């Protein structure tokens, strides 16, 4: 099974011009043209599973088109999207279209949204399949909130029986040691060399991770050099070992 994790920055691009005429003004750009390149890039990787961080669910930037659904059409599968904010922020214009999505060639059994308890970006998307589960995250920039969120993820890890993938943009600005609670919970990174993923052109920080439980075997891993976003993508081929799964009760989200 090939998994791709990619923070696509809503398809709004990168570079110094992103912050002109004022900081982060590039986030207001129309995105559909660049997103076509992102879609083609992902299609060329032939993924079975995609974790799309900072996806646009159909704001004016994307001319009302859901990016996750477009990728699902391209790779042959279905998508599940969740707004990454909670409460009032999730209802504001543009922000209500900002979130994360899982695209899969296999129809999931259940889909759930976890509130990680602290921070603006606090929703984690869990998708359960027959043989494994995947949790996709985009953690807070604030260290204290991020520590709380990692603690909440540890609870999710310890409550699961069966293969688990925990992936996304962790914003580990203080280094990968921030993830030690998850390592203690039995997860391990597939990026054994600690290849940095941010910023894309001269990567210095390892912000994006694929963590797997001990019953998932990485069989190949690489970080493509592509400059379609400010992050680099992660590509990993995984083998899921069969194991007994525990029943769980999740709420179903619409795709």
TrEMBL record:
Residues 6-231 form the Endonuclease/exonuclease/phosphatase domain. The keyword Chaperone does not apply. One of its GO terms (cellular component) is membrane. InterPro entries: Endo/exonu/phosph_ase_sf, Endo/exonuclease/phosphatase, GPI-anchor_lipid_remodeler. GO terms for biological process: GPI anchor biosynthetic process. Keywords: Endonuclease, Exonuclease, Hydrolase, Nuclease. It holds the Pfam family Exo_endo_phos. SUPFAM superfamilies: DNase I-like (SSF56219). GO terms for molecular function: endonuclease activity; exonuclease activity. This is Metal-dependent hydrolase, endonuclease/exonuclease/phosphatase family. The lineage of its organism: Bacteria, Thermotogati, Synergistota, Synergistia, Synergistales.
